[in-house]
User: Fold this.
Amino acid sequence: ALLTALVACTIYFYPALSQAGWETGYVLKNEGLHTFIAGFLIAKFFFLQGSFAGVDFFTHGGASEFFLRPNYPVYYPPLLVLTPLLNPKVPQTLSGLFVGLQFIHAMASIYCCHRLCTRFLKFDSWLASFVAVTFALSPIIARGLWFLPLVICAWLLPVCIYAGLVYADKPRWPTLLLASVPAFLAYTAGYLPAGFATIAISSTALLG
Assistant:
């Protein structure tokens, strides 16, 4: 499962990864450059200053820059941690982080989807690989790569279901904590409708 995820994601994201995100056109289009990446840079600044609230008058009354808009991933914990550590100074550096996060989430999605198919649905490995890769790297996902919160929530769906089934199989505190992490990430990914949908669908699948 891990090898399938690694190979598939490496091939899929190779054009972007080979340039370290510098030539990743889909990142620097639509809201990517003007909102997501700009918001990341400002979030880094305020994170390092220890400031998480305030009033700004430049964009939407400060909504996008001071963490108030519900459809931008400025609250996403991995971004809050990685952005200050990488200390990006130009948008292209952050586009590399953008692609790297997508690579990791897509890998996790393929791995968990593969494990779901083999461990719980009793698919053979080839069929499980086909299902996992088709889900995580579908044309619909490709069309939405520029909107980071949406694809993160989609990729986290099989992760939530697999983590929940692992907890149901071994109900202990460590597995409960592990099962709660993907749901928390979906909630904080930056697009609340998609996050709630991910949590609702995975909960329905687990309860069913």
Notes: The two ends are 25 Å apart (CA to CA). The chain has nine helices and no strands. The chain has a mean pLDDT of 81. The longest helix spans residues 91-120.
